[in-house]
Recover the amino acids of this structure.
């Protein structure tokens, strides 16, 4: 079949379009020319720049895990208001008093609380503060007052629960709670640690019950 002059003229035009497209694709696929003296390295960015400088390039400031040894503190809970004392203990456990405090690291201290059975509650909380738990069986809801816990076999549970509710709820919080040691009476088995005595009344007169405050 004979081709017309128009068809013969269209064939070289299509061939030139295909060659132009192939040239354009080759240019886009080829890597950009590198400047002299800046050869591409196969080393990861973290090893080339270091972790600290890499975080700085990303706009973040790295906080390395604290290497300081935890300090032992001793608090006498006799006559102290439960909430105020628990807030101070939670602050020491988390390490917020340290300049190197990091929220996601265990950089706190260890705290010893003695005379847990002599802790004070303000107002009518001895009767109004209730603790609930369930046995898992139908109708197994149990309730105890704060006064019943203090007069029971383990009064230190009241202090532990107050501090626990002021900590982070997760693996870090459970790990920090292991640094809390609560005992009934004035004796404790950590004499070798030489704990620093914290006078809560000297920090704030409101930390003690009103009838036991120093005038």
């Amino acid at each position: 079949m004979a081709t017309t002059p128009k068809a013969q003229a269209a064939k070289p035009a299509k061939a030139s379009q295909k060659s132009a497209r192939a040239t354009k694709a080759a240019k886009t696929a080829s890597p950009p020319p590198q400047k002299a003296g800046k050869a591409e390295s196969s080393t990861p960015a973290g090893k080339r720049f270091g972790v600290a400088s890499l975080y700085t390039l990303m706009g973040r400031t790295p906080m390395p895990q604290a290497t300081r040894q935890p300090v032992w503190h001793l608090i006498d809970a006799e006559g102290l208001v439960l909430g105020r004392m628990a807030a101070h203990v939670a602050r020491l456990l988390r390490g917020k008093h340290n300049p190197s405090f990091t929220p996601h690291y265990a950089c706190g201290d260890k705290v010893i609380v003695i005379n847990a059975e002599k802790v004070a509650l303000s107002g009518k909380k001895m009767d109004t503060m209730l603790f609930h738990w369930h046995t898992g069986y139908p109708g197994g809801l149990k309730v105890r007052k704060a006064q019943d816990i203090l007069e029971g076999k383990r009064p230190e549970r009241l202090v532990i629960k107050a501090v626990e509710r002021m900590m982070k709820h997760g693996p870090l919080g459970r790990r920090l709670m292991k640094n809390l040691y609560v005992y009934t009476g004035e004796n404790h088995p950590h004499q070798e640690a030489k704990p620093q005595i914290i006078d809560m009344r000297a920090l704030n007169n409101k930390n003690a019950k009103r009838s036991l405050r120093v005038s």
